[in-house]
Amino acid sequence: MAVGAGAAFEERFSFMVVLRYLDVVLVAIVTAPALALGAPMLGYALGGGGWVLQRILAAVDKRWLNRVADPRKRLGVNLFEAFGRIWLLAAAIIVSGVVARADGLTAALVILGAYSVALPIRVIAGPPQGKRNAPGSQQGKHATPGSPQGQRAR
Which of helix, strand or coil describes residue 124? Predict the structure, then answer.
């Protein structure tokens, strides 16, 4: 029975990994048909490349964020990295648009399509796993007023 459970876990884990990065997979798969149908190559490259780069930065930043213990610093780092990735995507669209209007539209549509896939998956998957509370934080501990955890030291 343990062997079956292990195989089921591996199957579910691999499915979740593919699902988590479905937006990146779709950007890669749709490249050939989009270019064959006449989408501007530079716009698609900058839009798709910007999307993939911001996903890589999100993974790296997540590890960086997990090392920050202070909740205020953690919030600052989280906001910094989130807005930085937004500016990266905006820059990809603007640079594409400066080259040619059609390239800018293509970059914006690639990013919109990838985001339209990524957002529902994140909502359905729930909060990210990993470090949720800072060390020493009382959040998440289910203390009741009568329990030893809920009483203050006098």
Answer: helix
| CA dihedral of residues 58, 63, 64, 69 (deg, nearest 10) | 130
Q: Dump pLDDT digits (tens) for 68-108.
A: 889 899 888 889 999 999 999 999 999 999 999 999 999 99
The residue among 51, 48, 53 whose CA lies nearest residue 103 is 48
Q: How far is CA 30 from CA 43, 63, 78, in A?
A: 14, 30, 31
**DSSP three-state, residue 141:** coil
Rounded CA Rg of the chain: 21
Residues 6+ away with beta carbon under 8 Å from 10: none
Domain boundaries, the chain: 8-125
Q: Which residue is listed with tokens 């998440």?
A: 140
Q: Per residue in 29-47, pLDDT tens? A: 999 999 999 999 999 999 9
Please compute the mean of the pLDDT values over residues 57-72 and round it to a whole number: 88
User: Which pair of structure tokens corresponds to residue 154?
Assistant: 């006098």
